Amino acid sequence: MTLQTGCMGRNDALRAARLRVGWRTVEQAAIKLTEHGQRVLDDRQFTVSARTWRRWEGERPGWPSEETAIVIHDALGRWPEDLGFTTPPGWIRPEHHEEGDVKRRAFVSVTAAALVTGPVAPQQVDPALITYFQQQLEGHYRADMFLGPHDLIGTVSAQYQLIDKLVRSAKGETRRGLLRVGAAYAALVGWLYQDAGDMDGAHFWRGVTQEIAVRSRDPHLVGYALVNQAQVRTDLGDGHAVIDLCEAVLEDSGRLVPKVRIMAMQQQAHGASLTGDRSAVDQLIDQAGVLLGRVDDDLPWGNACRRTEGPRVSRTGF
To answer: What percentage of residues in the chain have a pLDDT greater than 90?
Structure first.
């Protein structure tokens, strides 16, 4: 809000703020603001003259540059529009720009491991690395049970970045194997973001999972990735989208291992619950129960029930 100037043609709001910080004269204020601005901006060229300050405290104070507005705010604790200056059309406080910068930095931190640009130097890729990453994955699943998401996001996404780098050099079955394990790592990163309440990050990494799964040509992983997408939709309360995604998985259920089918039915039951279809929930859970005894694959992902004591069924599927 722009404050009115005083009855004597003065900008009393700025004058009061100057006196409040102990700057007794206009000349002292100009010197102090200049010194403060040079420190804040790290710019020895920044200056405010006594003449400029005198105009600011006059009847028509005008409007300072954005740089000067930041210095005034830092020195006096208030923005120019609260100090009697005439706010120009379209002025947006720098704090709003900073909020946008924070969001951009957050997006960069989420995507950094998945969107490494440019070519990488070719290297020999040992097929034994596939087993190594699979074993590490099981350790990450267990660590998630004890640590929670925040302490693991950086570690797991960094390993995904390494897998992505190796995929670019690997060939044949080694490349396919790394793509499969890479999809599982991306799925775990997506879950960690989701568990942390960052749905934007979760949605991004679920998309990465889907891409890598498709590139691997593994129908089980493609189905698993769609179930991961459905998990995000469940947390968003979009029951119809959950059902759509799970039905897409189960359309070709004859090609899928029982574990993936169970996960799809379980998640579809969540979707049916969100849409208020109790009979569908019961039917899906019953169908999934029939398949439980047939789960015998050695896939490294989707094994939460083997790591969780008791009869509780994990919604994550890890």
So the answer is: 44
